[in-house]
Amino acid sequence: MQPIRILVGMFGVDQHEVGALAVSSALSDAGMEVVYVGRFQTPERIVSTVQDEDVDVIGISCHSWEYIEYTPELLRLLAENDLTTPVVLGGSVITAADTSDMIGQGVAGVFGPSTPMELIIDDITALAAGRNLRE
Amino acid sequence: MTTDWLQEALFEPGGKAAVPPRRLWGRILSIAEADAAALPRLLEWAQERVRCALLIGVTGAPGAGKSTLIGKLARQMDSSGHRVGVLAIDPSSDRTGGAVLGDRLRMEAGGGDDIFFRSMATRGGRGGLARATVICAQVLAGFGLDRIIIETTGTGQTDTAIAAVSDPVLLVTEPGQGDEIQAMKAGVMERADVIVVNKADLPSTDHFCAALDLAMSARASEVPQILRTTSTSGEGIAELAGWIARRPVGPRSGFTSLSPEAATDYLTELFRVRLRDGFDRTSDDAGSDPFDIVALTTRIDAVIDSRVIGRLTDLDLLEKEVT
Amino acid sequence: MTGPRTEPTTRSGIPLKTSYEAVDVSDRMLERPGEYPFTRGRLTRPGAAAGGWIHRELSGEGGPAQSNRQLHYLLEHGQAGLDVIGDGPTQSMLDADHPLCRHSVGTQGVSLCRLSDYAGLFAGIPLDQVSISSSVPAAFALTGLIHAAEQAEMPLGRLRGSVLQPPLYANDAAYDSFMPISLASRLSVDTIAFCAEHLPKFHSYVEDTYFFSEGGLSAIEELALGFVQIRHLVGQTLARGIPIDSFASRIALLVNCSMDFFEEIAKIRAARRLFATMMRTDYGATDPRSLSLNVTSHTSGLTLTAEQPINNVVRGTVQGLALALAGVQAMEISAFDEGFRTPSPEAHVVGLRTQQIIEKESGVTRSSDPLGGSHLVESLTDEIESRVLAMVHEIESLGDPIELAERGHFRQIFTNAAVRYQHQVESGELQIVGKNCYRMSDEDDRLLRDIAETKIEPDRDRIAEIAAFRKSRSNDDVVRQLRVVLASVGDPEANLIPAVLDAGNAGATMGEIAGAMRQAHGHPFDPLGYLKSPL
Ligand SMILES: Nc1nc2c(ncn2[C@@H]2O[C@H](COP(=O)(O)OP(=O)(O)OP(=O)(O)O)[C@@H](O)[C@H]2O)c(=O)[nH]1
Ligand SMILES: [Mg+2]
């Protein structure tokens, strides 16, 4: 079995990187290959990375409100490029109302600060498996 | 399913090998990395496509600045008209198989160019390379890239495999590792064509270079070139690129002239992948108790009978290419 | 639920006994408040109430005019100390109209790009009476303040306030300024040197250990990295020929305050002793003001939970009490909603009220250093002091801190701490009520939740304003002054502050000035690869 590949990054000038690093390390411990792109990402940059790196899932760590604007841009750009890669968001700033909003727009999963790591791993694993079936 | 997709991506309806659109490259590399069944097709395609490409190996201790240097070097080569690809390798964990691939981070800033960049985990590969390094490099060459830069995991001295597959080999060092010069004498330092003293902006550079010169002067064999760079600012990169460009294409350059040693490594690897795959596929048919010799023998026979590793002509075909 | 059974230790791993006796403490027991080595803090000024501290509150939102109204509001409501924080782009030295900032202008602080922005921000504020602490890149905060003072015809010698100097750690642990560490470090020293000469009342160097410890550093790591930077910057400033007593008293420490009550108190006491002994024995300071460290603190946002936000009010109280007992000069209690949003005004008020209740009602601050002499606290203070010193020496033995920072040594420390913290929380080794024990279902956990739903919109007018400003100014002047900046960076003898000020006065923005400085070091003008250099 080929390991799951997941991109982990952050949008714009959102710079609180600690969560992204900790999650990356946990995902790697769970056997995934994390393509860590870190801070200062834009939807354009993420889409071209997704193509080159052929990741199964896109994970964005959110600690400022920038994700509210960038996420729909990313979803649109993925669709324009015929990419079906699922997008998941994680971070403490995402409230319950934001979560349903994001899911409504097409985000595949939202993880809050109290989501246990096992659940995050399970969800990402399921998303990656779904994607492989589609192809 | 993959094979159909690959066929369509790589070959024109008439059967001629084509260059797939850029957006598919990433997916094709994944197949090259993981899908043994697709390899024959891929290699057939590659054989038709590949022209001479320079494989540039970059090795050196963790944090020496390999990725930053490659980012600058790749851009330099890109702007002088080359088509550049990068394979950046980080170790997979032996225990979990997972990996954090962080090399991209250093090459991100600046973006907006044509350089193809792929992060790879070793997935069981040894000597600082990923299992599928050569295969992927070959596929990139098939896409028409003529400068393929490979960043090893950076375990330093033990990254010797790079010398078997690339030419030239760049050993990236940073000042302040005085003690390590001793240690470096063995291992990859022997195989390096250039020793790059990176982070030349740091004050201890002169001191380090002096120690390096001393260590070199004690050597009987051919002494590698020593070049200074500051990868963060780009100083010295043009000189390094110039050195690479001027260097006569050596016996190890390109796929049409892999060294016999590298070719053997490569073939062994291909064979191993397919053998392993054969076992995986036939594991249901026969017993898998490792101490049951009869069952084991039956299983090996099953693999051979299934012809999963068969079609040795594919390998013959490859051999023609690499020798 | 609970982690493996181990011997009890403090959060940073100091073993704890079940009880402490006189034999556990050294003869330090004879130390007195207001005297060297100042472990027990300062003696209260005659007439002032004992233990009084400045209650700070963060402010900054939208553009300068909007933030100016906020500052006036706070002053009218009796706030003595102001704390202005720049928005994300400002902290990263990017202008509001940079393409990567399009969704973040003014949301997490105030957007400051031009010198005139500071004049707007500080309009009508008595800069010689109110102490404004700025979380904005120091060289720009300083030149902005100078410009505002010139506009208000206020002599520089009377200016108060403070700036943070995080050259070694900012790129890794907070906002990346994309500058080589050597340049960031030089800018810090230039600021300190300039202020020693022209702004004697201004705190030109706040060592902010808060921001970089928020990823989960232990108390010992926090102080050790803080002192590595203090020693680095003091050493560099002395090397400029600036006498220690002309700037040591302008150094202050801004520490984190986590949940380990006694350890946090002992940390602050140890920091004061370490500072005093270093200044005296290592750097030859003699003025008592150079030896008695000014300590301020923010309570840790990391200790707060998104679950059951009301519990954070309790955490803030415990932490605020620790700080009051440790005797700090100023404090700020993190807003209870910080676990899940940029703090709301409502939550700020609760933080302020918490401080006021501790100060006015509890009576804990009537005497200086009330825990001085406690066997436990004195023993912890000694232990922290020696462990911090050991770690400082260990780091220094590895090489020049600039080189270590460039090599990613500190980044590794921060990353390891974050991973360790995550692991401790997940394994339950570190118990956090409401998070990994005593949890509540989401349906029941509704109290104070609705506050989280209000958000601050990015200030898009501000982006347009800055973009229009660029067209309105004289580009020749700007380019000429940016060239001066470029040349000054190339001259190791030059202090960069005057060049930054001149460029700002010519209309150059912070992003452009920072870009010119990067360019002088051979780095890209725009580190993110969007803008072309005007040079
Ligand atoms: N001062 C200075 N720092 C540099 C230079 N080149 C790289 N660095 C810094 O060194 C650190 C490590 O750089 P990388 O490019 O990630 O090093 P690497 O060898 O690829 O590291 P691994 O992939 O982890 O083995 C980063 O913080 C770089 O910014 C240089 O020329 N001068
Ligand atoms: Mg690297």
Describe this structure in words.
The complex is a heterotrimer of chains A (135), B (323) and C (535). Chain A has 135 residues and is an alpha/beta fold. Chain A has helices at 18-29, 43-53, 66-80, 96-105, 117-134, and strands at 5-11, 33-41, 57-61, 87-90, 109-111. Chain A is globular and about 35 Å long. The two termini of chain A are 16 Å apart. In chain B, strands 4-2-5-1-6-7-8 form a 7-stranded parallel sheet, sandwiched between helices. With 323 residues, chain B is α/β, with parallel strands linked by helices. The two termini of chain B are 32 Å apart. Chain B has 13 helices and 8 strands. Chain B has helices at residues 2-10, 22-34, 39-49, 66-79, 104-108, 133-142, 161-165, 178-184, 205-217, 237-246, 260-282, 293-306, 312-322; strands at 54-60, 84-90, 99-101, 116-121, 147-151, 169-173, 194-197, 225-228. In chain C, helix 4 (138-151) links the parallel strand 3 (131-135) and strand 4 (162-164). Chain C has an 8-stranded parallel beta barrel, surrounded by 7 helices. Chain C has 535 residues and is α/β, with parallel strands linked by helices. Chain A binds chain C through residues 11-15, 18-19, 21-22, 25-26, 39-40, 42, 64-66, 68-70, 92-93, 95-97, 112-114, 116-117, and chain C through 88-89, 91-92, 94, 99-104, 107-108, 174-176, 214-216, 305-307, 339-342, 414-415, 418-419, 421-422, 426, 435, 439, 442, 449, 452-453, 455-456, 458, 528. Strand 2 (33-41) of chain A pairs parallel with strand 3 of chain B, so a sheet runs across the interface. The structure holds guanosine-5'-triphosphate and magnesium ion. Magnesium ion binds at residues 66-67, 103, 151 of chain B.
